[in-house]
Amino acid sequence: MHLRIVDAFTDRPFTGNPAGVLLLDDAFPDDTWLQNVAMEVNHAETAFAHRLPEGGEADWALRWFTPVTEVAMCGHATLATAHVLHTTGAHPGPARFATRSGVLVATPAADGSITLDFPTAPLTRVEAPAGVADALGAEPVAAFDTGANVGDLLVELADEKTVLGLAPDHKALAGCSARGVIATARAEDPARGYDFVSRCFFPNVGIDEDPVTGSAHTALAPHWSARLGRDDLTGLQASRRTGLVRTGLRGERTLLTGRAVTVVEGELHA
């Protein structure tokens, strides 16, 4: 079985967010095997996809696993899967994926980018949970629940410098939300090519800090579009690897655009 490692939301190897991608010949194997493969790959997510019969609402079935659990939504591994389908010729046009978050569409463009059509996260302003400021090492300006699909606490911080300087207590953060915490701030200088910055911490699914998180941008897009008065923005996820996500708020849907590059190809013998 052919296994690929793809760096997503970047056009350069060793940046962006790496994902394992396996295109299966048939239906999904049992969950234990899927989880063991994801544990072996040991990236934030490994995507498993198989082709569906023609004439349905989707072309491929898609699931995502971290090293410790299955997740309901994953942007970067969807982008990575769409990149593999497009670059190998397995599915050259727009691909419709049947997932736990409904049908998600990935559309390749002539310039090599891919746009994902995801559900917009519903934001509800909440009081910052007790202890989140101490766990992050910074006081939130505002806090928001991001709904069941994303399952994160989004916290806006005072400025970009504060986000970049975070050194959180990951164990303490685990009690602050279902999946993790998105920390964000407005960009200090939009002339650098991005409108807002973020960092994402997901200790509850085995990922202390995710390099670039597509699903988080379904919450970041409505938050910053409301604040900045524009539907089309660019976010910098300021992890050690970094990555750029172009967002387009379209009501109940959010478009996430980025690039990807395959860095490893090999055979899985299991």
From TrEMBL:
Entries under InterPro entries matching the protein: Phenazine_PhzF-like (IPR003719)
Keywords attached to this entry: Isomerase
One MF annotation (Gene Ontology) recorded for this entry: isomerase activity
Catalytic site: 45
GO cellular component terms listed in the entry, alphabetical order: cytoplasm
Domain of life: Bacteria
Family of this protein: Belongs to the PhzF family.
Protein name per UniProt: Oxidoreductase
UniProt organism field: Streptomyces monashensis
